[in-house]
Amino acid sequence: MSTQIAVRLPDDMVKFVDHLVETGRGSSRATVIMRALERERRHEMAVRDAAIYAGSGEDSDMVDLVRYLSGHPVDLDQ
């Protein structure tokens, strides 16, 4: 289900959205705006998760993993 809403945007923002559509970086204004909102939602979730991790203290397993990996370069071709 979806709900249609009206949103007022500054002219320069609308020009930017229209430019993205005109250059094929979005199929419509709605698509561009929805993609931006999805990105913002993911950002907010990441900020929340980071706060949780920051408050939970150091994870000894992760510290050991980082120490191990920092001494062993990763071959991205494999």
Euclidean distance between termini CA atoms: 43 Å
Radius of gyration: 21 Å
Order of helices and strands: HHH
For the sheet with most strands, the description reads: none
Contiguous uncertain segments of 5+ residues: none
The amount of helix comes to 55-70%
Mean pLDDT: 92
- Hey, roughly how much beta strand do the residues contain? under 5%
Number of domains: 1
Task: Report the total helices.
Answer: 3
- Label the overall shape: elongated
What kind of assembly state do the chains in view correspond to?
Answer: single chain
Tell how many strands the DSSP assignment holds.
Answer: 0
Name the structural class: mainly alpha
Write up this protein.
By secondary structure, this protein is mainly α. It has one domain. It is 64% helix and 0% strand. It has 3 helices and no strands. The protein has helices spanning 11-22, 29-55, 60-70. The radius of gyration is 21 Å and the shape is elongated. The protein starts with 10 loop residues before the first helix and ends in an 8-residue tail after the last helix. The relative contact order is 0.06.
Task: Provide key terms for this protein.
78 residues, elongated, mainly alpha
List the helices and strands and how they pair.
Layout: H1 11-22, H2 29-55, H3 60-70
Gist?
This protein has 78 residues and is mainly alpha-helical.
